[in-house]
Design goal:
Distance between the termini of chain A: 54 Å
Shape of chain A: globular
Order of helices and strands of chain B: HHEEEEHEEHEEEEHEEH
CATH superfamily of chain B: GHMP Kinase, N-terminal domain
Structural class of chain B: alpha+beta
Shape of chain B: elongated
CATH topology of chain B: Ribosomal Protein S5, domain 2
Number of domains of chain A: 1
Largest sheet of chain B: 6 strands, mixed
CATH class of chain A: Alpha Beta
Chains: A alpha+beta (244), B alpha+beta (264), C alpha+beta (225)
Oligomer: heterotrimer
Radius of gyration of chain A: 18 Å
CATH class of chain B: Alpha Beta
CATH architecture of chain B: 2-Layer Sandwich
Radius of gyration of chain B: 19 Å
Number of strands of chain A: 11
CATH superfamily of chain A: GHMP Kinase, N-terminal domain
Helix content of chain A: 25-40%
CATH architecture of chain A: 2-Layer Sandwich
Number of domains of chain B: 1
Number of strands of chain B: 12
Distance between the termini of chain B: 36 Å
Largest interface: A-C, 39 and 37 residues
Helix content of chain B: 25-40%
Chain lengths: 244, 264, 225
């Protein structure tokens, strides 16, 4: 891939989207049999699978917290998920992503209800496009709901990038690689509204005004993704609720 | 990291003072601790800096050697930041490979240097596509009394400013000063409910390891942000932290320039 | 039709009505789990659709002995938490009788939860007429969230199964159900339980189960004649 000369031509991005448009998203709930909750999610070319196990007993035992459940989050890229084969196992990037994602979920899961237990969230990236961490959080969020885990609300994640001086929602690979800045967000959505920020990172160059603008763009995108998360869960469980 | 009993028992004190709008060491909420910088203390390194921020101490050493460029940027030097939180620096640090905290620290420092384009990497090409200068920034924590991240970021940029490229050692001409164009400053705030404290001490961190780091370049651009910890951040608080971080970064940059120009 | 709610859905602005599966923040009541919204005059609760069994005092559970100690038995109760059955809470305990002569690894029991401490250490007893060591019959496992449907309103569903099939049934809140009686009738009961699990939240379930039992009994009668 080489740097495109221009990212936005006649108001359209390289893949034909407008700056405030998301990539296509597909969500499938209860995708795995063995896990307590699971989700398959596509976001652009990202293909990710999330599984939730727990609350369950903690092994090794010294990791137990007598007052609450410990949350573990593993973001893992399959070796074939990127153009050049990735060496299996966690690298520094994956470890950092796992850490900040875990902390985002720790802020919304009611972990004090399950002392001495663990809630494990595993997300496998089968194919990586830009924004795989946001896709993983969206999938993990649905998997947690599917597992029946008590939470304050739903987490929804999306990134904003700056290319050619313009803010764009949900960046694709070219925008992510060669853009001027990238901010991934995850929001807590409660009562149908965005309430607070659960994950926030940024690298690149932006003025504080641009950052404020980026939040608004991300919020718009997050609400759309939230609706899709919601619909996917409803679709899965609606038969059970019918005629009750 | 917070299971240190001596810090743990400080929690009530910190919170009680905070209720009166005060910090336990008398600082203002947006005030850094006393900053002391010494550069060039490691003769064997291409550049080095020792930073003492309050009681937090860190040494950064720079080593350089020729190596292969990244395929997508064949004509630019490479910068690699690594942090070791050695057991000497805190009763809660353990020996072994870098854990998620040291990796996060190194990556946030790295982002600040990289995104502010502080080091002019285009001047570090030896033979396009084949050979460029590789810069290793190694962060070595000595004493973690809180906010190791900002101390490390300051030490890293000071060490880089102090670095001489060892060209003669590799038969590549005369040594030259590493071209440094910007001084990114990271400002870490401890988030406590709807309040925040800039440059938290270890005692203040006992209320919960919940921080927001904003790195600012010399033109007031934000070049890196990292929310760290299991908390929810409201948008108004975030905006406020942004504003305060930009202001605080200016003061620290002035201090870096004052102390480093004196030393260099 | 009952509405499906997700964590964070606002379900009431009256904290007094907050029931199971909800939480209060400020003056608002939100759902905390995925489930069916059940609203009555003085209560708003969420009936879970999925989730692990979390013990609560008074629950009947079926457990399997995982560890025998000098003071009692640790039971796996299909939950993140094991349950402890003290020697003193087992009526079969007698002086001079060793714990593993009474209950050994792998043995199953029906017990009642009598205590849970703040760290979720669970204590059970067998001093209740429903409790027993399971030495015959069959144990069936289903999603614990569906047990209330197997029991039915005021025990109506379980009564239907018992009377139609003439089998013993004890449903543990932890998703395990003990069946005892004629082998083929137990199998019919097991199938009926899976049917209830599958269609737990649909209308007219009792009628459909009754119809299912009637048909299966006819088949059985034909085979026997």
């Amino acid at each position: 891939m080489s740097r495109p000369e221009k990212f936005i031509i006649d108001g359209k991005r390289l893949d034909g989207r407008t700056p405030d448009q998301l990539r296509p998203i597909k969500i499938e709930v209860d995708y795995l049999k063995r896990a307590d909750g699971s989700c398959y999610l596509e976001m652009g070319k990202n293909r990710v699978v999330a599984a939730v196990y727990g609350p369950r007993e903690v092994h090794p035992r010294h990791l137990q917290d007598p007052t609450k459940a410990i949350i573990r989050y593993r973001y893992n890229m399959a070796p074939f998920s990127v153009e050049e084969r990735k060496r299996p196992g966690p690298d520094r990037r994956s470890i950092e992503i796992s850490k900040v994602s875990k902390e985002a979920f720790e802020a919304v899961i009611m972990k004090e209800l399950f002392p001495r237990s663990a809630i494990d969230i595993f997300v496998e990236v089968l194919q990586a496009d830009a924004g795989s961490r946001t896709a993983c959080i969206n999938a993990a969020s649905v998997a947690l709901v599917d597992a029946g885990i008590p939470m304050k609300g739903i987490l929804t994640s999306v990134a904003v990038a700056k290319v050619d001086g313009v803010l764009v929602l949900d960046p694709m690979k070219e925008e992510d690689n060669y853009g001027e800045a990238d901010i991934p967000f995850a929001f807590l959505i409660r009562g149908g509204k965005i309430e607070s920020i659960a994950l926030l990172q940024m690298d690149g160059k932006m003025t504080k005004e641009e950052i404020k603008e980026a939040i608004n763009l991300a919020k718009k995108g997050a609400m759309e993704i939230y609706q899709m998360q919601r619909e996917a869960i409803m679709k899965k469980f609606i038969e059970e609720g019918e005629n009750e | 990291m917070s299971n240190d009993i001596l810090s743990e028992i400080k929690k009530d004190y910190v919170l009680s003072k905070l209720r009166d709008g005060e910090r336990i060491d008398g600082r203002k909420f947006d005030e850094f601790r006393k900053l002391e910088i010494r550069t060039g203390l490691i003769g064997k390194a291409e550049g080095s800096a020792y930073v003492k921020l309050g009681n937090t101490q860190v040494v950064v050493g720079i080593k350089m050697q020729p190596g292969e460029p990244f395929p997508d940027v064949p004509d630019k030097g490479v910068i690699i930041v690594n942090a070791e939180l050695v057991p000497l620096a805190s009763p809660t640090f353990e020996p072994g490979p870098p854990d998620e905290n040291s990796i996060e620290l190194a990556r946030v420092v790295d982002r600040g240097i990289r995104e502010s384009e502080a080091v002019d990497l285009s001047k570090l090409c030896i033979e396009p596509g084949k050979k460029v200068w590789i810069i290793f920034v190694d962060i070595h924590a000595l004493d973690d009394d809180g906010n190791l991240l900002d101390a490390s970021a300051i030490a890293s940029i000071c060490a880089l400013m102090n670095t001489k490229v060892p060209a003669s050692r590799f038969g590549l001409g005369e040594d030259f000063d590493l071209p440094v164009n910007d001084i990114p400053v990271s400002v870490t705030s401890l988030i406590i409910g709807d309040k925040f404290l800039v440059d938290p001490t270890r005692d203040e961190m006992s209320v919960g390891e919940r921080t927001l780091t904003v790195t600012v370049d010399k033109s007031d651009n934000i070049v890196a942000i990292q929310k760290s910890g299991d908390y929810l951040l409201s948008e108004p608080l975030f905006t406020e932290v942004l504003e305060v971080s930009i202001r605080a970064s200016k003061k620290i940059r002035e201090e870096i320039l004052r102390q480093c120009s004196k030393a260099c | 039709m009952r509405k499906i709610v997700l964590p964070g859905d606002l379900i009431s602005t009256n904290p007094k009505v907050a029931g199971y599966g909800t939480y209060i923040e400020g003056d608002k009541v939100y759902a905390k789990i995925l489930g069916l919204f059940d609203e009555a005059e003085n209560s708003a609760k969420v009936i879970p659709l999925k989730g692990k069994y979390i013990p609560s005092i008074g629950d009947t559970v079926i457990g399997i002995v995982r560890e025998v100690t000098a003071n009692g038995w640790n039971l796996d109760i299909n939950s993140p938490y094991q349950a402890f059955l003290p020697l003193t809470e087992n009526p079969e305990t007698k002086p001079g009788k060793k714990p593993n002569d009474i209950l050994d690894l792998g043995d199953a029991v029906i017990a009642k939860v009598i205590n849970i401490d703040p760290r979720m250490r669970v204590t059970v007893t067998m001093k209740d007429k429903i409790c027993r060591a399971i030495r015959f019959g069959r144990i069936v496992a289903i999603n614990p969230a569906r047990i209330p449907r197997v029991i039915g309103k005021k025990g109506s569903m379980i009564k239907l199964l018992k009377s139609e099939l003439d089998v013993q049934i004890v449903a543990g809140q932890n998703g395990l159900i003990w069946l005892n009686g004629d082998r083929r009738k137990i199998s019919i009961a097991e199938e009926a339980i899976y049917l209830i699990e599958e269609e737990a939240h649909t209308e007219g379930l009792t009628d459909r189960v009754a119809e299912f039992l009637r048909r299966r009994k006819e088949c059985l009668a034909q085979k026997n004649s």
